[in-house]
Amino acid sequence: MAFLRLASRWPALSKFGVANPSLHGKSPPLRNGFLPLTTSSAVGKSASAAATTEAFRGGSSQAVGHAPGQRKDVLDSSFDDAHAAYKSKTTWEILRAYIVYTLCSSSYLVENNMKLMKIMKAVMGEKMFTALMKGTFYGHFVAGEDQERIRPTLERLRSFGVKPILDYSVEEDLSQEEAEKREVESSVSELGDEKVQDPVHGLYMDGEDGHWKGGAGRSLVEGTMPQFHVDKTFADRRYKVSSARTYFYLNEATCERNLEIFQQSLQAVAGATYGTGLAAVKLTALGRPQLLLQLSEVIMRTRQYMAEITAKTAQANRSSPEDKGNIIGKHISPEQLHQKLQQTCKLSEAPVKKFLQNVTFDQEGLIHLFPWSGIIDENLELSETFLVPDIKSGKMVRLLTQLSSKEEEMFRNMIRRINVLAQTAEDLDVRMMVDAEQTYFQPAISRITLEFMRKYNSKKALIFNTYQCYLKDTFNEVVTDLEQAKRQNFYFGAKLVRGAYLEQERARAAALGYNDPTCPSFEATSESYHTTLTECLRRIKDLKSKGKPNMIGIMVASHNEDTVRYAIEKMKEIGISPEDKVLCFGQLLGMCDYITFPLGQSGYSAYKYIPYGPVNEVLPYLSRRAQENKGILKKIKKEKKLLLRELFFRISRGKFLYTPKGDYTPI
């Protein structure tokens, strides 16, 4: 009767989906934020109480049978369970989230947020402004200022089944003019920015004296590749980008500081996440962008070069002339390459012989045309590495503009920094995730990352690459990289995202006159994502049947419910369980909690992307979060509805001072 009287006082609650509310179950006391594994009876009682609570509420996250420390709830795949989404939050945090999302719905506030924050800081003073930000946007989207202050957040996430991806989110607050100046200066070689159109007058090596002769060009492949050359109009890489952090090169010293920051993130993962977390890094923070641009152009010109060879050897080869796969997908043997070159080249010449000796291959054919392992491991000079025999003239031709000795040293420094991070990850036994960036950097970023996978992923997946599924070629790129991992026998780790640079990529392609690399619609992007994910899961299943179940690890990093549901359904269909630990899910801190927490509490591997850093230095990050949330009003509407549902439930049951105490163990 008491329950009925209380329910009758809150007739409006049914509007928010709060039907027949009851008391939350109580969890046993925690030690250092974690449930002692010896309290099996207490865990059982807690689970039973939670199940009873959810039954009264009509919820679906009922606790199921579990061993001590292994509580699991039943997943509501509609992601409409407010209690499962927010039982990790205090009532104040729920109220704060609702306020933040409401503010993010205001076009004026979002469009002028950075200007308003600076005005508020000037008026209120440093101390009051910092307190205000911690109580609102900063407190919602950022975990804390440093490694120690983020620990309570990480421990609470863990107790509710969620693991972290740490990201030190400090950004420089540069003006557009300063950003453009830095980018232009750091994207052009000190020897000049050469855009070659005429391959005939390119540099070639004379077979008799071994010296370079000819014009200043660099390519035997006709046509320019404008996408790999800086353009002042798009030099500010923040243009139309709201969901990705941007680094602008200043000097080598700043790259060293970024290296130290990334190392600290790896150490924080090891010290605060019990080895379950990851750290995110960006390669543009570790070196001069010019080097990534030039290396990316070399990779794409190499593919064109191989396409020309393939077109003339297709009948003797099982790949087709139209095959868009990379070199590894052509299945050309070294003998076939030798045979083709023999028609036009003087194979007795030392440079051609050296070229043929340095190709990477196995019993299935070529893997790489160049000794990438030597570039990573042996500090080979780039200018003397990317040479190929021109099949028209027989001369050795450069695919890369000759770098200055200073630029060669800068490249070796960049590789050294990445190597230091990878070695740190291995020493600490934590994982490192390399973020994707713009398409004009990405070929180089992916190639370097794959080579570090080859080097460090021999026993487990420590290094992960990121693939943006809004790009038309993503499926082919993933298949190519999976094939390299298979043939060179290393663990493959990948994060699948929709992508962060869509509008910028489209605008840049239209302005510079090259093919738009992006999918034409949201539906096409979803199809790309799902097709790529399905291929990864198919290969996981195949490896599992061969006794190699953990050779591929995939993160579904998406705020889209349909994509998450698709992944779960495919896992069940293919026969992959969460316990196989080959597929996980990830969302940003402060966004889509109604997806992340129910997943983690039901036994799936779930992550939150955790930004941290001093308040004043993460303002650009907070600005982007506000802009991103404005762009997903449909998700905000659902989040606000669920937040209100949980808020009114707590008010109705006198649980306004509810203290979150989790008893889940992340998988």
From TrEMBL:
One of its GO terms (biological process) is L-proline catabolic process to L-glutamate. This is Proline dehydrogenase. InterPro entries: FAD-linked_oxidoreductase-like (IPR029041), Proline_DH_dom (IPR002872), Proline_oxidase (IPR015659). It catalyses: L-proline + a quinone = (S)-1-pyrroline-5-carboxylate + a quinol + H(+). The keyword Flavoprotein applies. It comes from the Eukaryota. GO terms for cellular component: mitochondrion. PANTHER family: PROLINE DEHYDROGENASE 1, MITOCHONDRIAL, PROLINE OXIDASE. One of its GO terms (molecular function) is proline dehydrogenase activity. Its EC number is 1.5.5.2. Pathway: Amino-acid degradation; L-proline degradation into L-glutamate; L-glutamate from L-proline: step 1/2. Residues 333-636 form the Proline dehydrogenase domain. Pfam families: Pro_dh. It comes from Frankliniella occidentalis. Belongs to the proline oxidase family. Its cofactor is FAD. The keyword Oxidoreductase applies. Keywords: FAD, Flavoprotein, Oxidoreductase, Proline metabolism. Converts proline to delta-1-pyrroline-5-carboxylate.
